[in-house]
Amino acid sequence: MATLLRADPGLHEVRSRHTLLVAAGVEHGRRGTASWIERELALGAKVLYKGWLPAGQRPDQHWIAGPAGPRGARDALATGQMEFLDLPTVVERTGVTAEGVTALFRDEVARAFEDAWPTVALTQESPGLPLADDAVLAAYTAWEGGFDVLADEGPVRTLCQLSVPDEDEAAIWETVAVHHRDLVDDVWSASIACGRWRPSGDLDAHVARRFGAAVHGALRAARAHETGPDLHLDLSAVDFMDVACAEILMLAARSAPAGQHVVLHGGSRFLRRLFDAVGRPASVRESGDAP
After folding, report:
1. DSSP 160-186
2. 4-13, 27-36, 164-173: which range is least confident on average?
3. Which of 202, 141, 209, 142 is nearest to 175 (CA)?
4. What pLDDT, in 10s, does the model give residues 194-216?
5. Residue (of 129, 145, 161) closest to 37 by Cα position
6. Residue-level pLDDT at 97
7. Quick check: 220 pLDDT over 60?
8. Domain with CATH 3.30.750.24 in the chain
9. Can you give the pLDDT at residue 13?
10. Helices and strands (H and E) in the chain: how many
11. Which stretches make up the STAS domain (predicted)?
């Protein structure tokens, strides 16, 4: 096994099992992905990078191995600590089915552990799929769930990339909705903690549509969960929310099926006044309210 890079304590800490990195521009996305890969290499992980490789181009000619890529990437490609999985090859090997994608990565993960790598880090470029098609969306949702299965089976972490300029509105909406449990989107992020969906940071008009997609995904997931159908929403980490995001949240709660509620936990009085001002429906409850 190759000599490992020394960990840089200044690297941004995202240690979750399956995260979506939303990038408003190409360079923004590359910086975030490079930081994540750099840290994973430094911590000794085997890194599998799934991306688009133009015909005739070698992995060491991809941006990931160039000046904009993570430190040590070129050496990692040479030593085998990082491998490049070309998307067309992945499509050919899997048939673009959820079962095929999960099987492919399960085999790659098993091979990495057989080679004595302590952890495996998977990352894939923005999907570029027509997620307005129900069949494609179902397959995409299932294979993203496959990454969670791999994380349940061993020390595997996945970073999915979403490049906003490269995707249509339907793909952006559904990708964020599917990843509502763990995403990083510039000035805000979201996670699940103690059974509660927890957005954090600044929620303003610039991210309102993607916030709405995440709310939609959280409500949809709550309906399918054994403890559902209510969505328990932890607002304690929200630093700022503007009218646009408040309206989106209240509209989503108002549009939820009968019997589903949004249950609020934490957060400031200002947020409650804001919700009242934009029109708070009866389906939005406080955690202390009687059912």
Report:
1. EEEEGGGS-HHHHHHHHHHTTTSEEET
2. 4-13
3. 141
4. 899 999 999 999 999 999 999 99
5. 161
6. 81
7. yes
8. 186-291
9. 43
10. 9, 12
11. 200-279
CA distance 117 to 139: 30
- 186-291 is a CATH 3.30.750.24 domain: yes
Distance of CA 283 to the CA centre of its chain: 28
Please give the single-letter amino acid code of residue 157: R
- Please provide the DSSP assignment of 33-80 as one string: HHHHHHHHHHTT-EEEEEE---TT--GGGSGGGSTTS-TTHHHHHHHT
What is the full DSSP assignment across 127-146? ----TTSHHHHHHHHHHHHH
Separation between Cα atoms, residue 226 and residue 195, nearest integer Å: 11
Q: Is the pLDDT of residue 291 over 60?
A: no
Q: Which token pair is 36? A: 């994540």
Please give the Cα distance from 206 to 211 (Å, whole number).
10
State the DSSP H helix or E strand holding residue 285, giving kind and residue range, or none if neither: strand 284-286
Six-digit token pair at 247? 């309206």
CATH 3.40.50.300 for domain 9-179: yes
pTM of the model as a whole: 0.90
